[in-house]
Amino acid sequence: MEIQDRIVVVTGGGRGIGEALVRQFDREGAATVVVADIDFYAAQDVAETLGGVAIACDVSKEKEVRHLIDKTEAEVGPIDIFCANAGITFKGGIDTPPEQWQRIWDVNVMSRVSAAKHLIPRMLERGGGAFVTTASGAGVLTEVGSASYSVTKHADVAFAEWLAVQYGRSGLHVSCVCPLGVDTGFLDHDDPIHQYLADDAITAEQVAIDTLQAIKDEQFLVLPHTRVADFMELKTDDYDRWIRGFQRMKQKWERKAA
Predict the structure, then answer these.
(1) Is the pLDDT of residue 212 over 60?
(2) Measured by CB atoms within 10 angstroms of the end CB, which terminus of the chain is less buried, N or C?
(3) DSSP states of 153-214 as a string?
């Protein structure tokens, strides 16, 4: 799929990877980029610099996701590319409060389901489109410091896989982006785990470049960090060995924190 003259929506577009995606779509000639964010002023600041459109949207609420889609299609035009990029994280394991589990599930998973429900049938009627989800390396590996992030990002990847299988022969292209450390506000430099990720963190701009290339190439799995593929190969080749390796890394990080 070409980017030129396309109408694009990016959730979480006010900062981080989302902002980088918005700016890269604009550089590559998208007709209009709709910047959606729970922080309307952040979205507006980004949109105003490139002649885009800002829409406030809390993606955890289905009615707001539907409003985003309806408003874009009514006032801007048919959506060609939808980037389900907005995401959150919480630290913690089995002690994570239920309200945090629900919040992260609604943002990281159900927001994708809501967008697909209200947009994909329209795309298919028009002959197709692209649905892009920003997942994480944690979705194909794991996140040692956050049970809720690991679980929801695995679900994020699984839903993207399902969409690709279900609609890939009907005109829908799906891309699933799975980076490791990215130099955004997600990285906590006081956390030993995040310090490890920061060692080879890449810029949000690089993630955006790789993502747009994947859309053009109609590539499903986008791995801005190539070593994720190596970890995935080890995981499928010898699952127990892979788990032992992560256990050792966890012990190393715990000693460093102590």
Answers:
(1) yes
(2) C
(3) HHHHHHHHHHHHHHHTTTTEEEEEE--S-BSSTT--TTSHHHHHHHTT-B-HHHHHHHHHHH
